[in-house]
Amino acid sequence: MKFVDEYRDGRAANILARGIQKITTRPWTLMEVCGGQTHAIIKYGVDELLPGKITLLHGPGCPVCVTPVELIDKAIAIAGRQGVLFCSFGDMLRVPGTKEDLLSVKARGGDVRIVYSPLDALALAGKFPERDVVFFAIGFETTAPANAMAVYQARKRGISNFSVLVSHMLVPPALEAILATPKKRVQGFLAAGHVCTVMGYEEYLPLAEKYRVPIVVTGFEPLDILQGVHMCISQLEEGRAAVENQYTRSVRKEGNPMAKNLIREVFRIVPRKWRGIGEIPQSGLALKEEFMAFDAEKRFETLIRGASATDTSAPDPCQSGLVLQGIKKPKECPSFGASCTPESPLGATMVSSEGACAAYYRYRLHTEEPSNE
Fold first, then answer.
1. pLDDT in tens, 253-278
2. pTM for this structure?
3. How far, in Å, CA of 162 to CA of 294, rounded?
4. How many of the other CB atoms lie within 10 Å of CB of 241?
5. Cβ atoms 133, 124 nearer than 8 A
6. Which domains does the chain have, with CATH numbers?
């Protein structure tokens, strides 16, 4: 496939891998912060091409995985109400809440629909004015512009039966939370290219300087990732800590100004709880006061009161919180592939299409981990 196969060329991958081997003189630990990158690494065996001195950790780069349990419970309560048409991306339907998931609500007769865009949900609100149409607005900065546009258009067009249940996360504060932990293992980051396509990478500059850690904005194909690793290892070996852009075909330093302006117009920055991790200051988005009429949490406040979990801890014995923080890899969890499978997931990392546990189950369930010796 043109413009894709070029970035999956095996000969070029081996050349890059040999280049990484040549410059690596000591052990280094890197973290990719995107579930799409994690799946590419495991699917194409990128980690197996790297020298044993390099360890790749999988960070909290899956927005489905880090959506807190309490918000899933609120979504379930809203979706089960008579007269509600609840819209969501497909991979949210199997994410477990405290007791059940959205798919269970749909099985009981709830009107839960899979959409591909928040504007699809807005169109349904226009088509069914007698229904309360709710869109589950999750994601990192990548999906924030489209969700902001849906709310902006709803107000502009006077569509009052539309609302959004917001669970937007911001990546830079999560990186800082990882870097600030006393047990920090990460020495360099591969930053998510799609986030930076929207936001640019200026927000990473203070982090690189403060914590003396290289951050390389990286794409999602095998050659992207290998080149990102090469750039990151080069910095570490040279004693540098800068923000560099591997994904130049998509990312500019300033990002997308129109998308950023729309986000700022509709959303405000707030603290946000991350599933399996806890609350991270200034790490989320919520609707501004002038758009509060479209906030599903406010609209259904009485209904969802008491419906949510008391904290964001993943259900025991699920260890997805440790996976999301890069402390453990999926196959180090005793439940992996046994009591926890895609058909019966204990945590979101096993059911999400970008979850690390789902990647290992699909591509590495019956294989040994590559040796770092």
1. 999 999 999 999 999 999 999 988 89
2. 0.91
3. 6
4. 18
5. yes
6. 67-168+255-304 (3.40.50.11740)
